[in-house]
Design goal:
506 residues, alpha+beta, Methylamine Dehydrogenase, Chain H, 4-stranded antiparallel sheet, 5 helices
């Protein structure tokens, strides 16, 4: 998966059309007074007078034509300006497969009517990864203002400037959509009701860029917020950030110094960086998979006294391991995806450390995978050619290539992240280097009568899959995560910081 630092946005003056006012309409020619020729009259005087009269009449007609042309020109200019203003004021929607790239003086504005919540958090540096910290505020939270706990790590220009950033963001308000026809009776009351979000953060210094970060799914249950970081320098750091969580909710609490140092460092990968990283959702003591760019996968488990990493790697190809996912139903089974286009299924009990099943899922790199925790036999994969699909693991076989349950080529740039909604078995979030995060509902049937009628009436929908629910724009988006305690809430990271959002579609 390619990494690149997010570029700063260039600012430039907005170009505006200048209206041109019509000039003054020229006056009609005034006939000259008659001139007395004297008693010696020119025998050709009548002819000249006749010519003069003709010329005078022609001149008047030309002036009239000029006046009409100027009026027509003014009308055309005025109409063109009106059309330009109307086109500029009329909103249009952005779709990666159809819309042209933004110009240097163009920006996209979110439509507040389609968001239930939308907030942007500026970061000191771009962040390639993030994860959501489970909290004690309850499940199925739908009330506002909302609060979220997050962890991310930076991609600073200098290695020594990198850090882990843990944060609590509260007072996240619901998106307000005002009706232009409604008049505000009391502006002061409206100002009092509006409260800006509040962020409290704690940092931990790092020596390298973090390619991927994942928090243990048992953090809330065990009280240990084990957080693993796959570093660019090849090290895998494991921190316990429980003290940072305590500091967020306990005024005056001092974080002890050991809490800012890793509880364990995995150096088995040497100086080879990687991206594959995943905690087991079934082993609460802590079982961590790590994969590097040489195709090696190591398993690290926790004993009562220490962490132990298996020195013998799981290995099938020298192509980079881009993502790893534990099975959501079997505690010894996991899946890997790599740059060779294969999805492989492994069993940690194998003494040979070889895959049980290898399936070619793409002709390009597979950048990310997601194992559904609602339907245990479904696995989603995102590819470097912009295609993503969903696979039925029951049909995986070494003998023949299976057909995907679903396959979409809507995105026109590499897929950077893919994730099943933990609270809804049919909904997925997909991020791409085309600067969008899309939401999909696989339960939608293309032959549904209502959908068919809508597609018939709106020609713009003909090339849009009916399963597409929503398109969210975010510059250089890299990672997207669902909030398990706030239904429909997502957090995504990109070149312009973090986005915390929830749509009316989910």
């Amino acid at each position: 998966m390619a990494k690149r630092a997010a570029e700063e946005e260039n600012t430039s003056e907005t170009r505006t059309a200048v209206k041109t006012n019509a000039g003054d309409v020229p006056n009609a020619a005034v006939p000259s007074e008659d001139v007395d020729a004297g008693e010696f009259e020119d025998p050709y005087g009548d002819d000249f007078e006749s010519d003069g009269e003709i010329i005078e009449l022609d001149s008047a007609d030309e002036d009239g034509d000029d006046e009409k042309m100027d009026e027509d020109k003014s009308a055309l200019i005025e109409q063109a300006n009106k059309d330009e203003e109307a086109a500029a004021s009329e909103p249009s929607f952005y779709l990666p497969h159809r819309s042209a790239p933004l110009g240097p003086d163009e920006v996209l504005e979110a439509d507040p009517s389609v968001y239930e919540m939308l907030h942007n958090v500026n970061m000191p540096w771009p962040c390639l990864t993030l994860d959501i910290l489970p909290d004690n505020l309850g499940l199925e939270r739908r009330n506002y203002p909302a609060s979220v706990y997050l962890a991310t790590a930076t991609q600073a220009s200098k290695a020594k400037d990198n850090e882990i950033i843990t944060m609590k963001i509260s007072s996240l308000a619901k998106t307000l959509v005002k009706d232009e026809d409604d008049e505000d009776e009391d502006d002061e009351d409206d100002d009092d009701d509006h409260v800006d979000p509040v962020m409290i953060s704690e940092t931990i210094p790092l020596k390298s860029t973090t390619n991927r970060m994942r928090v243990s799914p048992f953090a809330q249950e065990t009280g240990e917020y084990l957080t693993a970081l796959m570093q660019e320098n090849g090290e895998v750091l494991i921190y316990d950030i429980a003290s940072q969580m305590t500091a967020f909710d306990t005024p005056g609490y001092t974080i002890p110094k050991p809490a800012k140092k890793p509880a364990h460092t995995i150096r088995t990968h040497g100086n080879v960086e990687g991206y594959g990283l995943d905690w087991s959702p079934l082993i609460n003591t802590g079982s961590l998979l790590t994969g590097d760019c040489l195709g090696r996968i190591h398993l690290t488990t926790r004993t009562t006294t220490s962490w132990v990493t298996d020195k013998t790697p799981f290995f099938a190809s020298q192509d980079s391991i881009e993502d790893l996912q534990w099975s959501t139903s079997e505690n010894t089974v996991f899946a890997s995806a790599g740059c060779d286009g294969y999805v492989r299924i492994w069993d940690t009990r194998s003494k040979k450390h070889k895959p049980v099943i290898s399936v070619e899922a793409s002709n390009s790199d597979i950048n990310c995978i997601s194992w559904s925790n609602k339907v245990n036999h479904l696995l989603a994969s995102g590819h470097d050619d912009g295609v993503w699909g969903v696979w039925d693991l029951r049909k995986f076989s070494n003998k023949e290539k299976p057909s995907p349950v679903a396959l979409y080529d809507f995105h026109k740039a590499p897929i950077t992240s893919i994730s099943f909604n933990p609270l809804d078995e049919s909904i997925l979030a997909v991020s791409s280097e085309d600067n969008t995060v899309t939401l999909w509902d696989l339960a939608v049937e293309a032959d549904d009568e209502e959908i068919a009628q809508q597609r018939k009436e709106a020609l713009d929908l003909n090339d849009i899959p009916p399963q597409l629910l929503f398109v969210h724009w975010q510059k250089e988006v890299k990672d997207v995560r669902w909030h398990k305690q706030i239904p429909g809430c997502l957090v995504s990271t990109g070149g312009d910081g973090l986005n915390i959002w929830k749509t009316i579609s989910v």
